[in-house]
Specification:
Helix content: under 10%
Number of strands: 11
Order of helices and strands: EEEEEEEEEEE
Strand content: over 45%
Shape: globular
Radius of gyration: 14 Å
């Protein structure tokens, strides 16, 4: 059973930093494309960052250098370092995974939620001014 578990969210003040983690199990993590997404209250889920099996990264335009996605294949863990947090970053943050066809390695990082088929339960990030 494929499972993703996020952690690391919390309440911080404007300008603070957080590192989110997503631990995967039940599949060959190193072959997967992995992504971070977020959903603010009364808004749709949108892409933040993604990384493919080669380590190629892609970021949403709003990131502006404040977010860094990384993966540790030995630990089957995905990270999102968020610096200079702003109130608009308040959201539930999800990680997601997808494999290539037939379970092969996934190439081509995507930040579109519809491209992913496995999701975690989310971790809440709240930024106060």
């Amino acid at each position: 059973q494929v499972q993703l578990v996020e952690s690391g969210g919390g309440s911080v003040q404007t300008g603070g930093s957080l590192r989110l983690s997503c631990t995967a199990s039940g599949y060959i993590y190193s072959r997967a494309c992995m992504g971070w997404f977020r959903q603010a209250p009364e808004k749709g889920r949108g892409g933040v960052a993604s990384v493919d099996a080669r380590g190629t990264r892609r970021y949403a335009d709003f990131v502006k250098g404040r977010f860094t996605i990384s993966r540790d294949n030995a630990k089957s863990t995905l990270y999102l370092q968020i610096n200079s947090l702003e109130p608009d970053d308040t959201a539930l943050y999800y990680c997601a995974a997808k494999m290539g066809r037939g379970g092969s390695s996934c190439y081509g990082a995507s930040i579109y939620p519809s491209d992913y088929n496995t999701w975690g339960q989310g971790t809440q990030v709240t930024v106060s001014s």
